[in-house]
Amino acid sequence: MTDMIDFPLDTKADDTLAHAGTSLRFTLLDSLDQLPDHGGLYVLLGSDPEGLKPLAFGATHSLSRLTRSSDFAAALREGFYAVGIAPAPHGAGAQEIVRALGRRHRAPINTRQEALRAIEAAQLPAEVPLAAE
Q: 104: closest CA among 43, 48, 39, 38?
C-alpha cells in the first residue's frame, strides 16, 4: 500500500495558484531508490513527536537527481526522514507552488531560501553613483 500525504494550498492568497487546487497530494516513497527519472514536485520530510513535518518543498526536472541537490543536503542536516513526490499541477508555475507551500507549512529550508532572496533583492547595485557626481 502506498502512503499519501496532503498539503493544503492557500489559493485565495495568490491568484496565480487558482488552477493548482486547494491541496496537493504527495506519494511517500519507501526508499530513495524509488525516485523516478521524470520531473515533478517533492517534499522532504523530517519527523517529530507529532508526526511528519515538511523540511522543504521543491520542483525539479529529474526527481532521480534529488539526492544531489542542496535542498537534500540541507534536509539531511535538519533530520531528513522521508520524501514525497507529486506531479506538477497544470496551469500553475511549479516555483510559485513550491514557494506557496513552503510559506504555508513553514518549511525551514524554504524559509531560509526566501530570506536569502529578500536579502539579495535589497542589496545595493555594485556600482552606486556618488552624490557628488
A: 43
